[in-house]
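Box 3.1 A note on notation
Throughout this textbook, protein chains are presented in two layers. The first layer is the amino acid sequence; the second is a token string describing backbone geometry. Keep the layers aligned when reading.
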Amino acid sequence: MDAYSGFARVYDLLMDDFDYPAWAAYYLELLARAGVRPVTLCDCACGTGSMSLEFARRGLRVTGVDISREMLELAGEKARQSGVSLRFVCQNMTQLTLPRPVDALVCACDGVNYLTSDKRALAFFRAAHKSIRPGGALAFDVSSPYKIRNILGNSFFGEERDEVAYLWQNALEDDIVTMDITFFLREEGELYRRVSETHRQRAHEPERLKALLEEAGFTGVQIYGDQSFDKPKPQEMRVHICAARE
């Protein structure tokens, strides 16, 4: 099954400890330090729209983009229930096309890790460059090479909750971790439905991403540690990158 088709149903449940308001605030500060205080923003790989909603609540005009229709259906319903005006578009981020350039483009929560080759990462950066107005910026994060190689790679995870249980087996090869995940989703009573998905993420070296960003036309590339404005530490779990569009 395609990644994030069955997962869409339980994504928010499994991410219930994720501090989206803090992340949105961090990204806006990251952009501000690059001289960008956006009015329009594209949230790429937006998933169920939690980050998009946080940006919109702060007064930004937001377009959320994701490859999963199932995720976007949930995002649209979440926006309607919140009374927040948002636009969601189903697109592959490597072929991103917006009707007009935005002030900033954000890709949070490992979206770039899913681009498992330099070619795909460069395609996204080039599409992002075209989608951002001059004077704007791109900001994104990746799970660090340390995390991919030492925490996720060749590891097993599992959890059981009332609504869902999952078994998660990873295998690392050539800096790509293949994640085979089986979910057991509660239907009615004691009945569960089994859904299996495969996800693949790449350990991107930050300096290599910087080179690809510059090849795509970005300048002033800054690399930071996990929700900080310091250089990443050797065992940093997440790396944030911000690049300017001149």
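The two ends are 41 Å apart (CA to CA). The chain has a mean pLDDT of 93.
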